[in-house]
Amino acid sequence: MPIAQNPLSVEVTLPRDDTALLTVQGYLDIDTATEFQHHLANQLHHGRRHFLLDLSAVPFMDSSGMNIILRVYQEVRELPGSVHIISPTPAVRRILDLTGVSITVPVSESVEEALERVDPPQEPATEGED
């Protein structure tokens, strides 16, 4: 069995019960997109509604990777949920910008920034309000 030339590593952590942080390392292309999709589908199956995709260690992404991101974005919008891309490398950011994906899927510089976008801080209720 041949070994993938550019293996993909996906680490999943749960900053909140309904939120999965997927830290992706390696090329996100036609050879690795199915593996990435399996990780996302598994988290959807376990009730996650918000997906934070850390792409800071992805030197290259082709249309296969973009299609998976857009597909999960479409699925979670109906839950309702969200997808956030975190710290894409310059090459990946350029692809996201050129294709318009960065207009549809929010791009954050940090996990903390993405988490704030998932649940914006609420104004504290003042006494006497109903």
UniProtKB/TrEMBL annotation:
Region (Disordered): 111-130
CDD domains for this protein: STAS_anti-anti-sigma_factors (cd07043)
InterPro entries tied to this protein: Anti-sigma_ant, STAS_dom, STAS_dom_sf
STAS domain ranges (all copies): 17-118
Domain of life of the organism encoding this protein: Bacteria
Family membership noted in the UniProt record: Belongs to the anti-sigma-factor antagonist family.
PANTHER family for this protein: ANTI-SIGMA FACTOR ANTAGONIST TM_1081-RELATED, ANTI-SIGMA FACTOR ANTAGONIST TM_1081-RELATED-RELATED
Designated name of the protein: Anti-sigma factor antagonist
